[in-house]
Amino acid sequence: MREFEIKAGFTAVLALISSVLGVLYVPVLLMVLCNIIDYATGLMAVSGRKEVLSSYKSIRGIMRKVSMWLLVVVGAIVDELLKFAANTAGVEVPVDFLVACVVAIWIICSELISILENMVDIGVKLPPFLLPIINLIQKQTEEKANVGGMDERHNEVSPDTTEES
């Protein structure tokens, strides 16, 4: 009986998340899964990199993952803003969460690349086609979503943000 209650609760939670996220459900689920796998493989790869694991680095890693989720939220806000503007102008927008989905796909690709890099550092031999496929998906996502005018400096981390306070 207890097993049934756990399954029913799990199913109810996933159904609720699915109804709230709609078309974003699968990309967000995959993104969170990739975040967890990347974090775990990153921890496993520490010894292969001859690094020392510290709580500061671990907390920063978690903060980066949460920030990735917030990027998808920013994408969803942009989607809603565009939809509102279009509806105000009398234009019907047939797509929900397009920007947020593109952001999530780009993040998933970045996480997959990081997972593969971690696996190499752990000592796992990768299939030679896997990384090029993921790089191609990420590149196509960037090219299709490019609206021009993006300054690459926005993607760089400031050196002073990496120092411990």
Number of domains: 1
How many β-strands, per DSSP? 0
Globally, the shape reads: globular
- Compute the average pLDDT: 87
Count of helix runs: 5
Beta strand %: under 5%
* Classification by helices and strands: mainly alpha
Kindly state the percentage of residues in helix.
over 70%
Low-pLDDT regions: 157-165
Summarize the biggest pleated sheet.
none
**Rg result:** 19 Å
End-to-end separation in angstroms reads: 51 Å
Can you write the helix and strand succession as a string? Answer: HHHHH
Secondary-structure blueprint of this entry?
Blueprint (H helix, E strand, L loop, with lengths): L1 H20 L3 H21 L9 H34 L9 H25 L7 H16 L20
Overall description:
- Helices cover 70% and strands 0% of the residues.
- The protein has 165 residues and is mainly alpha-helical.
- The protein has one domain.
- The radius of gyration is 19 Å and the shape is globular.
- It starts with a helix and ends in a 20-residue tail after the last helix.
Summarize, please.
This protein has 165 residues and is an all-alpha fold. The chain is 70% helix and 0% strand.
Which structural traits does this protein have?
mainly alpha, 5 helices, 0% strand, globular, disordered C terminus
